[in-house]
What does this fold into?
Amino acid sequence: MLIAGVLVPMFTFTKFYFFDDTFSLASGIFHLLDEGEPFLFVIVFAFSMLMPAYKMLLLYQLISAADAGHSERHQRHLRRLGIIGKWSMLDVFVLAILIVTVKLGAIAQIQIHYGLYLFSMAVIASMLLTQLVQMHASQLNERSDD
It folds into this structure.
């Protein structure tokens, strides 16, 4: 869902009822770079693409680990996941700002496409999966302490 949500169209901006621009999250981010906004590009790219991908990689490593809860590597991944989890809503915040900005524009309208829903579902699924993995790790730690 994350990959599709990043690559498929999210929005179509209509300016003056004649000019349409359709953007996916990826094309919108790279459009920032084309428009001479390297700082915004780096921030949005890092928090909307790199961080969620890294979070998915950590979740995969935690779920597929044979020594769940017992190795130092597993504990290190859990700590990293906790740190990243604190930033997980930033990508949704970026999309909300984008929508509000366009909706407030008097000369532009926005049409939302299914990419926005896919990306939002991926964010929510990763948050739920993170919670489940952390709860499972806590239960394993409690059992090993007994």
In short: DSSP finds six helices and three strands in the chain. The domain at 2-141 is CATH 1.20.140 (Butyryl-CoA Dehydrogenase, subunit A; domain 3).
